[in-house]
Amino acid sequence: MILATLFIFGMILAKITHFPSPVLMIIITAIVKYFRLRLESVKSGCQQWYEFISGNFTFPLIAGLGLLYIDLGSDVNVLTIFYFITIISVVFTISMTGFVCSFS
């Protein structure tokens, strides 16, 4: 609710100042944090939420953004039978090396 309130307040200020609302929201949030206008329980909840999001969504987000900017049309031309044989042989070799080394 606090985040939505800050966002709405940023949108209202954007109409007045003609400045982007997300930027204003960040500035308002920094002011609230600097003057310690939020409750300690809210700060604790935000910390827990940050740890959850950064722990669970960082890698999927990076992978999604990576796929977004790859030109898959040019990558399809690389996919040949020799390419797949190379991939399969490398994965098999690494797997078997780990398997053999686990018994040492």
Please provide a written account of the structure.
The chain is mainly alpha-helical and 104 residues long. The protein has a domain of 38 residues. Helix content is 82%, strand content 0%. α1 crosses α2. It is elongated. The relative contact order is 0.05.
Structural class by helix and strand composition: mainly alpha
Number of helices: 6
Molecular shape: elongated
Largest beta-sheet details? none
Q: Tally of extended strands? A: 0
Structural Rg: 24 Å
Mean pLDDT rating:
88
Low-confidence spans: pLDDT under 50, at least 5 residues?
Answer: none
Kindly estimate the percentage of residues that lie in beta strands according to DSSP.
under 5%
**Strand and helix order:** HHHHHH
Distance between the termini: 56 Å
Percentage of helical residues?
over 70%
Short description:
The chain has 104 residues and is mainly α. It has helices spanning 2-17, 21-34, 40-56, 58-68, 72-76, 81-102.
Task: Record keyword descriptors for this entry.
single chain; elongated; 104 residues; mainly alpha; 0% strand
Protein topology:
Blueprint: H1 2-17, H2 21-34, H3 40-56, H4 58-68, H5 72-76, H6 81-102
Helix pairs in contact: 1-2
